[in-house]
Specification:
Length: 404
C-alpha cells in the first residue's frame, strides 16, 4: 500500500557451525597450500613441545633416580693445606665419622697414586687410559648405592688377594665385557684377576673409571699407605645438614679446613639446572620457527584474499555483511593454525616418547605445554589472519566482481 514502509532486511546470522564450514572452504579447495602452511606452524610447535617434554622426562628420571639412590649421601675428601699442598685424611677418619650419631653407613676408598692399569704388560706405560686404582672397603657398594653388572664384588677372601673389580667405564676402555678366572689386567706391575664389573654409579662417578681392589691387597701388593682419599657416609634424612656441618672437624680434628665435604645429589641437581638453561635456548629456537610459520599463514591468507575476490564479491552481492566476510577469513586462518598446532603437539609427543624410551626414561609431556602449544597457534592464527580478513571485508561487491 502507498505510504507504507518496506520491511527492513536483516542479514542472517552465522552460527558457529556455519562459521567453521565456510572457514574450511578455502582449506578444502587448496589442500596442498593449506598443508604446507600448517606444516610451518607444526614444526615450531613440535620443536617447543618436544624440548619441554624431553626436559621434563629428564627431570622425572633424575627424581626417580634420586628416590632410588637417596639424597643423604655425603662424601669427605682431602683438600689443600695452607701452603697449597695436597692434604691427607687420617687413617682413623673412617672410624671417627662412624661415631657420629645420625650416620648410618660409612665406607671409603683410597687412591693408589702410582699404580696404573693396562690390558697387557706390552702396552707403553704412558697409555694408561686414565684409569685410577683404588683400594676399597667391602661395604662400599651398599653405601654409595652402586651395583654389580657382571660377576661378584670383593669379599673377605678376595679382598686379600690380587683380585679387581672394574668400573663401568674402565671395563670399556680395557675392552673387557665380562669377568672370569682367565680374565686378567696388568695392575701396578703385576697381574690381577677381574672378578666383577660395576654398573654405572650416578652418585659416585669416580668409581666408573676405577679399578677397585681390596684394602688389604692394596697394602700387601701395591704399598698402599692406608689413608682414605674419599669417605662416603649415609646419614638419617632429617640430619643430613647437621652431619654435613660437622664432618670436616670429625674427619680431621687437627685441620678441619683441609677437608672437603660435598653432597653428590647436589651435583646432579646442578647438572639438571644446566640442562634447563639449554632448554631455554632450544625453546627460543622453537619460538622463531613458530613465528616463521605464522608469517607463512599470513602470506597464505593474503594470497587467498587476492585469488578469491570474485567469491567475496558474490557473497557480498548476495547479502553477506562485512563482518561475516571478516569472520569467514579469520575463521579460515584460525582453522589453518589449529591444524598445524594439533599436528605439532602430536609430533612433539611422539618425539618425546621415542627419545625418552630410547634412554629408559619415563616419557613426560606437561599438560600446560600441550595446551600452550595449541593456544599459541590460535593466537598466531588470529594475528596472521586479522589483516587479510579486514582487507577482504573492505572489498566492495562491484569492485570484487569486476576486478580480474
Amino acid at each position: 500500500m502507498a505510504g507504507q514502509e518496506r520491511p527492513r532486511l536483516v542479514p542472517a546470522r552465522l552460527r558457529p557451525r556455519d562459521v567453521v564450514r565456510v572457514g574450511g572452504v578455502g582449506l578444502r579447495t587448496r589442500p596442498l597450500r593449506a598443508f604446507l602452511s600448517a606444516l610451518g606452524i607444526a614444526i615450531g610447535i613440535a620443536a617447543m613441545v618436544s624440548v619441554v617434554g624431553i626436559s621434563s622426562s629428564s627431570r622425572a628420571e633424575l627424581d626417580r633416580m634420586l628416590d632410588a639412590l637417596g639424597t643423604n649421601l655425603l662424601t669427605v675428601a682431602p683438600g689443600n693445606t695452607l701452603m697449597g699442598d695436597a692434604a691427607q685424611l687420617p687413617k682413623e677418619s673412617v672410624a671417627m665419622i662412624g661415631r657420629i650419631g645420625p650416620v648410618e653407613q660409612v665406607s671409603a676408598t683410597g687412591l693408589v697414586a702410582d699404580a696404573k692399569v693396562y690390558r697387557t704388560d706390552r702396552i707403553p706405560a704412558a697409555e694408561s687410559g686414565g684409569i685410577g686404582v683404588r683400594a676399597a672397603r667391602l661395604d662400599l657398594l651398599e653405601t654409595v648405592g652402586a651395583t654389580i653388572a657382571h660377576g661378584t664384588w670383593l669379599n673377605e677372601a678376595t679382598a686379600r688377594y690380587p683380585a679387581v673389580v672394574l668400573g663401568a667405564t674402565a671395563a670399556k676402555r680395557l675392552g673387557i665385557g665380562a669377568p672370569g678366572p682367565d680374565v686378567q689386567v696388568y695392575l701396578g706391575g703385576r697381574w690381577f684377576t677381574v672378578i666383577g664389573i660395576l654398573a654405572p654409579a650416578p652418585l659416585a662417578p669416580e668409581l666408573d673409571l676405577s679399578a677397585l681392589i681390596g684394602w688389604e691387597a692394596g697394602q700387601t701388593y701395591l704399598d698402599f699407605d692406608g689413608h682414605p682419599t674419599t669417605v662416603y657416609t649415609r646419614s638419617a634424612e632429617y640430619a643430613v645438614q647437621a652431619v654435613q656441618a660437622v664432618l670436616g672437624a670429625t674427619a680431621n680434628p687437627e685441620a678441619p679446613n683441609e677437608v672437603q665435604v660435598s653432597r653428590p645429589s647436589d651435583a646432579l641437581a646442578a647438572q639438571q639446572a644446566t640442562d634447563e638453561a639449554f632448554t631455554g635456548l632450544l625453546l627460543g629456537l622453537g619460538a622463531v620457527a613458530l613465528l616463521v610459520g605464522g608469517v607463512g599463514v599470513a602470506n597464505t591468507m593474503v594470497i587467498s584474499v587476492l585469488e578469491r575476490r570474485a567469491e567475496i564479491g558474490l557473497r557480498r552481492s548476495l547479502g553477506a555483511t562485512r563482518g561475516q566476510v571478516r569472520i569467514q577469513f579469520l575463521a579460515e586462518s584460525l582453522l589453518l593454525s589449529a591444524l598445524g598446532g594439533v599436528g605439532g603437539v602430536l609430533i612433539g609427543i611422539g618425539v618425546t616418547a621415542g627419545y625418552a624410551l630410547s634412554r629408559d626414561w619415563p616419557p613426560v609431556v606437561p599438560g600446560w605445554a600441550m595446551a600452550g602449544g595449541v593456544g599459541a597457534t590460535l593466537l598466531i592464527g588470529a594475528f596472521a589472519g586479522l589483516y587479510p580478513a579486514i582487507r577482504a571485508a573492505r572489498l566492495a561487491p562491484t569492485e570484487a566482481l569486476t576486478t580480474p
